[in-house]
Amino acid sequence: xxxxxxxxxxxxxxxxxxxxxxxxxxxxxxxxxxxxxxxxxxxxxxxxxxxxxxxxxxxxxxxxxxxxxxxxxxxxxxxxxxxxxxxxxxxxxxxxxxxxxxxxxxxxxxxxxxxxxxxxxxxxxxxxxxxxxxxxxxxxxxxxxxxxxxxxxxxxxxxxxxxxxxxxxxxxxxxxxxxxxxxxxxxxxxxxxxxxxxxxxxxxxxxxxxxxxxxxxxxxxxxxxxxxxxxxxxxxxxxxxx
Length: 242
Known about the structure:
Blueprint: E1 6-10, H1 18-21, E2 30-31, E3 34-35, H2 36-45, E4 51-56, H3 60-69, E5 77-82, H4 89-95, E6 105-110, E7 113-115, H5 119-129, E8 133-138, E9 146-149, E10 155-159, E11 168-176, H6 192-199, E12 203-207, E13 212-214, H7 218-229
Parallel strand pairs: 1-4, 1-6, 4-5, 8-12
Antiparallel strand pairs: 2-3, 6-11, 7-13, 8-11, 9-10
C-alpha cells in the first residue's frame, strides 16, 4: 500500500530560540551537525515515506536552499511551498491543499520534534479507527524534580524529573483530506480545528510511550546535541532503514 505524503510545518520564527533563529529558521538549527529538519525527514524516510511537502515561511529561502543541496535517499522527493511568514499553523496546512490534492490521507508534523516513534503503527491505528484525524500524544518529562509528601506534610522522597501524568500533543498526525475544509486562513491548527474535530468525535489519540523531545528553546537544542554526541539518541536507530 502506498504511504501518504508527509507535510511538515517549517514556517515559524522560533522566537524562544533566538540564539539561533535571528540568522536561520528554526528547522535549520543543527543537531549533531545536521538541521533538525533533516532528522525529521529522515525519521519518516527510513520508515518508507517518500513524499514530503514543506510549509515554509520565515527565511524560507534558506530551507529551499538546504533542500536543493541535500542528497536525499533514492525515491525521496522534498518540495517547499511558501505559506507566508506570519501565517498560523492551520493556515499553513490550508495553503498546502493544492499540493495535497487527490490524496485521501496525509501525515503532518512539526519540524522541531524528535521521537523513536513507530510511524507504521501510527498509520495503521489511524486507518483502523475510521475517524478523520489522529494525534500522537506523549507524556513529557517535567522540567523540575518532584518532592513527595504525605498527608501531614512530611517529605517522603524525591523523584528527578518524572513523566507528567497528563498527555500532550506530540506533533505526529494522520489526517484525512476533509480536514483541510475545516481550516481557515487564520486558523491555529491546535485551536478551533482540533477542538472541533474532538467535539465531533473525529479525533483519536495514539499514545507514544517512548522517547519524545521538542526543540523549543536554546536549552533544548543543547540537550539534544548532548544526547546525540553521547551516541545515545533514541531516535538515531530510526534514521536507518530496517
